[in-house]
Amino acid sequence: MQVYKVGGAVRDRLLGLPVTDVDRVVVGATTEGMLAQGFRPVGADFPVFLHPKTGEEYALARTERKSGRGYGGFTFYASPEVTLEEDLIRRDLTINAMAEDDQLNLTDPYHGQRDLEARILRHVSPAFAEDPLRVLRVARFAARYAGLGFTVADETMDLMRQLSESGELQALTAERSWKEISRALMEDHPQVFIQVLRDCGALKVLMPEVDALFGVPQPETHHPEIDTGLHTLSVLEQSALHKQPLTVRWACLLHDLGKGLTPEEEWPRHIAHEHTGLKLIKAVNERFKVPKDCQELALLVGQYHTHGHRALELKASTLLELLQSFDIYRRPQRFEEFIVACEMDARGRKGLEQRSYPQADYLRGAAQAARAVAVQPLLEQGFKGPELGEALKRERLKALKIYKDNA
């Protein structure tokens, strides 16, 4: 049997990037032969084994045939007769369809190295169109390698458009979709992921609420970029430039969904978009079964981001309500992520990327002032139950008034 490194390990080595995950394919082997050498089987759908000493994965060379809808609708065939070239042709992109042996001898039947040098993301074969998940994967790779100048080949974009129009994207499970979306949002250029999805028509299918933002104008006074969709891309870009976590990036993507519901006759103003957008944010969260922490922050940022921008003008009572909405006493990190998301929103505007955002430190100071109010003196005064809660609220309000007067 012959063992080869394949896919990302080969691609990233040739690009001069760190190699983190190594996939191996075994040609000329059988399941029985792998077991006899001590390999442990782990693949449910096709033969994948763990090395007896290193625990690394080794997959038998295989072919696949479309047998149903969606990314899971495939029948796999693995045998010693399957060649390396046959295994590689089932892969999505030419840059992922290269292999190398232990001596770094490259096997590149589909010209992946040429496309690496040309900075092109190109599908390997027409079978690309059989797997709708590949639309998301290509968009994710575009986001990952945008900084190196990679773009999607025209013919590959055509296939992605066909997939978007075919109805196959609806066959993707929430879990698989979210896995790709969340990974893409954590790339260096997540805005490229959204743009590529829009260019091929997939955004309209997967997240029509986000797609609807493009072409919707905002007041030029506050938004020199005018277009709400472009603003959303810029906010997402800022969140990546500032190395924000997934929770913040997801909130940045969804924060302005309400503007897509504004009647045209009211443009470019978007009165109460914070509230009208909540049902859309909930719908997107539910569609992809988004993790709870991402769901919660997206809803809170959607509802309160304009409060963040107007923080210096808020009354002490409104400020207290804002702090309590975030449960800053038990979950201080969530409020910090809200502040950062608001700052990304403020910076995600054409020509204002380097603007200062004094609201951030002001809100942090307000939270600190409210948290500094001690409970023990109130307990010693005999307050308990609901009365204790009201007394604590009064003391925190006093603290915020003092903070506001001295800020």
Summarize the structure.
With 407 residues, this protein is α+β, with helices and mostly antiparallel strands. The protein contains 20 helices and 11 strands. The protein has a domain at 1-111: Beta Polymerase, domain 2, CATH 3.30.460.
Mean pLDDT level: 94
Number of strands: 11
Structural class assignment: alpha+beta
The end-to-end span amounts to 73 Å
Strand proportion, as a percent range, falls in 5-15%
The CATH first-level class of one domain comes to Alpha Beta
At the fourth level of CATH, the homologous superfamily of one domain is: Beta Polymerase, domain 2
List unreliable stretches of 5+ residues.
none
What does this protein structure show overall?
Belongs to the tRNA nucleotidyltransferase/poly(A) polymerase family. Bacterial CCA-adding enzyme type 1 subfamily. Monomer. Can also form homodimers and oligomers. Its cofactor is Mg(2+); Ni(2+). Mg(2+) binds at residues 21, 23. Keywords: ATP-binding, Hydrolase, Magnesium, Metal-binding, Multifunctional enzyme, Nickel, Nucleotide-binding, Nucleotidyltransferase, RNA repair, RNA-binding, Transferase, tRNA processing. The structure is a single chain. The chain is of the alpha+beta class. The chain has a domain at 1-111: Beta Polymerase, domain 2, CATH 3.30.460. It has 20 helices and eleven strands. It has helices at 8-15, 31-36, 84-89, 112-118, 133-145, 154-166, 174-185, 190-199, 202-206, 208-211, 228-241, 246-254, 273-276, 278-287, 292-309, 316-325, 332-347, 359-371, 376-380, 385-406; strands at 2-6, 23-27, 40-41, 48-50, 57-60, 62-66, 74-78, 99-100, 106-107, 120-121, 151-152. A seven-stranded mixed sheet has the order 3-4-5-2-1-8-9. The protein has a two-stranded antiparallel ribbon with strand order 6-7. The chain has a two-stranded parallel ribbon with strand order 10-11. Helix 5 packs across helix 8, helix 11 (228-241) crosses helix 17 and helix 12 (246-254) packs across helix 15. The longest helix is centred in the last third of the chain and has 22 residues, at 385-406. It is elongated and about 80 Å long. The model has no long low-confidence stretch (mean pLDDT 94).
